[in-house]
Amino acid sequence: MALGDVPAHGFGLIQKITLTADGVIDFTGIPAGYTNLRLVTTVRANVAATFSNVWAKPNNDGAGNYWYQVLQASSSATVIGAPGAASTQGVLCGFCTGTTVSAADYATAETLFFRYADTSCTTLAHGEGGIIASVNSIFRSHAALWNSTAAVNRLKLYSDATDQWKAGSVASLYGE
Length: 176
Hints:
Blueprint: E1 12-18, E2 26-28, E3 37-43, E4 51-58, E5 66-74, E6 78-81, E7 91-97, E8 107-114, E9 123-132, E10 137-146, E11 154-158, E12 170-175
Antiparallel strand pairs: 1-12, 2-11, 3-8, 3-12, 4-7, 4-11, 5-6, 5-10, 8-9, 9-10
């Protein structure tokens, strides 16, 4: 099967980014021929923190066009996050570790972007992910809205503080 072909049973790979050195994760030139996108990440932020959020900015939109909701459970507490006010951070796509925990600790997440190329509606996203780290185990379910009717042709990933990711981080984008 060629890259971009959609198998009969669902999602086909559009692009996979595996960092062999610290760097950015930026999916550009996303084709409009699918209905939904699926972003799968196993990443570690290049930021001095234990944990950080993972954000995706469709078309690198830096305006306050994002809203989100989080349900989080850890080994010590369950938290329902209040809906985020208009934010410039991006579409919430999970949680990740930073550089203050073991280099072996990564987080995984999967986020679906519904009707990403449909210019008659805004882009909704939903996903879940988790971390099993030496300092804590966390599960998160997240939902987000990009309040724009533009077709998504780019997704650039950010943590809370940077667009830099540690070597070994992997992100895959699929279309359905």
